[in-house]
Amino acid sequence: MREHEIEPVPGLPEKLPEGEGILWQGSPRWWSLTTRALHLRGLAIYFALMVAWSVASAATSGGTFGEAALASATSLGLAVLCLGVLVAIGRALSHAALYTITNRRIVLRVGVALPMTINIPFSAIESAAVKQHADGTEDIVLTLSPDHKVAWLALWPHARPWRVGRAEPMLRAVPVTSGAAQALARALAASASVAVAPRPEGIVAERPRMRGAVAV
Fold first, then answer.
1. What residues does 120 pair with on adjacent strands?
2. What CA–CA distance (Å, rounded) separates 108 from 209?
3. I want to staple 67 with a disulfide (CB 3.0 to 4.6 A). Which of 56, 63, 76, 156 is the partner?
4. Which residues share a beta bridge with 174?
């Protein structure tokens, strides 16, 4: 049995309470997640330079054509192996992730080796911003109020880079055409316009097969 097959609702650790409904669900586009979050393109350029350097070094040191070819083949093989591992990690992270927007909260199901769901109620969100990319995807960044915190390591790579102290969750590499940003904007506006009795809500991270919740 796969880890996520025990979910009563895909992407959620339990059934939704009465009055709460799913407005949108989606996952990151794996190639966009890998190139941006795992810096695949930058590493590919780095390895290309290393291969070129090994060939040039072998040629200028008086080596034969065969020695230069062997040096380049070795470097190229290591580069392809490293990039292949990175692509596999990116695909696994993308396929394991599922973002859910309801009329009350955002739920991030993240993690491969240690999957967990992170519930972010609308009351914990101070602001939301959208950044669109040329590949047809967008990142939705959530700025949390100072009273609510979530561990950056629990979120990675679904977190804004370089915001470790005060982590900002992200819905990463979501296709623009999926309508995630529009669904979230409408839900936040509707939530802000409705007066709700205060209740002790916070960001909660939950792991499958565990009862209760552990605050992050």
1. 106
2. 17
3. 63
4. 138
- Are residues 166 and 104 located together in one domain of the fold? yes
Residue 142 in domain: yes
CB 172 within 8 A of CB 36: yes
pTM for the complete prediction? Answer: 0.81
Q: What kind and span of H or E run contains 206?
A: strand 204-206
HSE-up of 46 (CA within 13 Å, CB side)?
Answer: 9
Answer whether residue 176 is part of any domain.
yes
Q: For residue 151, give both structure tokens.
A: 């561990």
- Beta-ladder partners of 205: 118, 214
Contact 139, 172 (CB under 8 A): yes
Dump pLDDT digits (tens) for 30-59: 999 999 999 999 999 998 888 888 777 766
Distances (CA, A) of 176 to 41, 86, 200: 21, 25, 34
Which pairing describes strands 116-121 and 105-110: parallel, antiparallel, or unpaired? Answer: antiparallel
Q: How far apart are CA 141 and CA 70, in angstroms?
A: 46
Q: Indicate left, alpha or beta for 39 from its phi (over 0: left) and psi (-120 to 50: alpha).
A: left
What is the extent of the structural domain holding 150? 21-29+98-193+202-209
Please answer whether residues 13 and 100 qualify as being in contact, where contact means their C-beta atoms are separated by less than 8 angstroms: no
